[in-house]
Design a protein that fits this description.
- The protein is of the alpha+beta class.
- The chain has eleven helices and 20 strands.
- Among the domains are: 131 residues, Sandwich (Tumour Suppressor Smad4), CATH 2.60.200; 82 residues, no CATH class.
- It has a seven-stranded mixed beta sheet with strand order 4-3-8-11-12-1-13. Strands 7-6-5-2-9-10 form a six-stranded antiparallel beta sheet. A three-stranded antiparallel beta sheet has the order 16-18-17.
- The radius of gyration is 25 Å and the shape is globular.
- The protein binds zinc ion (ZN) (2 copies).
Length: 389
């Protein structure tokens, strides 16, 4: 490398560290809020209105923000502070956190780490509430929102790596809207700051670690609830083949809570569905008996009965809102029973299987390599560096 390239790599490296430190997350995304309350939980906050310092507050302060015309009206219980187009709550300490509660419409209290900025959407009808938060604290909030608080440290490590990988692969998803990611499942669920100490340990012990494929691209870290005993090739669900999202046999999830399901519908509904939607010859008794005795004894299939018929199981799953495509069909009198396995699309990591593996003392690296083929763990700061080589 010549001097210029070295400098360039170095600058990118610095930039990357800068970017990695904080994330701008839009919170309360799914609600149309016209008034809410902010209050520090820990530490002290400097409160800015349109860039000017208005006041400072510790946990005794409560501030209400309400949309009024084209501006945000800022008040305490005692007095009106003023009207602004942007308000910033800047934490003075690294471990500062705050509470936020929507008043119109009424919703429960949530808490978050670090800073908050408040603006209005371009049409001035909605708040744009953005939590500027340390990346790893954001990851901890996501891990807890996505996997709950009743699993093990090793599983939290794994989930932290996957959530971080997802974040970096989608870091500019909302950049034109003035933030980076939203707190909804559209990006990743981020409903609160973490509460569980093991979640934080899992995040810190894997700090900065992400998963890449053999070309050093961040992987699409797909996961689902339970695969029913076999995961699915990505191309069978999303029509895109990837080197690491390959079907694997999974015995770890088969006695977990979402391993089996059943759904019953009238036989007549099944007949008319096959006839109307798929032009299936339901009047042919032999072919109709195939459609009422379907099974997948040798592992997951992509198509119903026969590939030639071109009826994807994922279409049937969507049309009847079944938990998975891994089902059999059986007739009982004038009813049709779907007996199914697993829950979710089945691609990538099976959460219940992974939780069971973690309980059986498999390491997060073993679990990762079991569900994703030929992947590597790297530090996020190395990504740009490798790409330039
Ligand atoms: Zn989003
Ligand atoms: Zn599984």
């Amino acid at each position: 490398m010549n001097k210029k390239t070295i400098l360039f790599v170095f600058l990118l490296f610095l930039l990357n560290i800068g970017n990695a430190a904080t994330v701008n997350v839009r919170i309360l995304t799914t609600k149309v809020i016209s008034s809410f309350i902010f209050s520090p939980l820990n530490g002290t906050y400097i409160i800015y209105g349109d860039g000017n310092v208005l006041t400072e507050s510790d946990a005794s302060g409560i501030f209400q923000m309400t949309i009024e015309g084209d501006s945000i009206l800022l008040k305490t219980f005692e007095k009106t502070i003023g009207k602004y187009s942007s308000i910033k709550m800047q934490a003075k300490e690294n471990d500062a956190s705050f509470k936020i509660k929507s008043v119109i419409p009424e919703s429960k209290v949530r808490s978050y780490d670090n800073h908050l900025t408040v603006e209005l959407s371009p049409n001035k009808k909605q708040f744009l509430i953005v939590n500027r938060v340390d990346q790893e604290k954001y990851i901890a909030g996501v891990v807890e929102s996505e996997s709950g608080t009743r699993t093990s440290l090793e599983y939290y490590k794994l989930q932290a790596i996957l959530c971080r990988t997802y974040l970096l692969a989608h870091i500019n998803r909302h950049v034109l809207e003035g933030f980076q990611v939203c707190d909804d499942v559209h990006c990743q669920a981020y409903l609160n700051k973490h509460k569980e100490e093991d979640v934080w340990k899992g995040v810190i012990e894997t700090r900065g670690m992400v998963v890449v494929d053999s070309d050093l691209n961040l992987i699409t870290a797909a996961f689902h609830s339970n695969c029913g005993g076999q995961t699915v090739n990505s191309q069978d669900v999303w029509a895109v083949s990837t080197s690491y999202l390959k079907s694997v046999k999974d015995t770890f999830c088969v006695s977990q809570s979402h391993a089996k399901w059943q759904r019953t519908i009238p036989l007549e509904d099944w007949r008319s569905y096959l006839q109307l939607k798929h032009k299936y010859p339901v009047d042919d008794s032999l072919l109709m008996s195939n459609a009422t005795t379907f099974a997948q004894p040798n592992g997951r299939q992509v198509y119903f009965i026969d590939k030639e018929l071109r009826i994807p199981l994922k279409t049937i799953r969507a049309d009847f809102q079944l938990k998975s495509t891994y089902f059999s069909v059986e007739q009982k009198g004038d009813m049709i029973v779907f007996n199914g396995k697993g829950y979710g699309h089945g691609v990538g990591l099976c959460q219940e299987g992974a939780m069971k593996m973690a309980k059986l003392n498999y390491s997060y690296k073993d679990i990762l390599k079991f569900y994703y083929k030929d992947v590597h763990l790297v530090d996020q700061t190395a990504l740009n560096y490798f790409r330039l080589e």
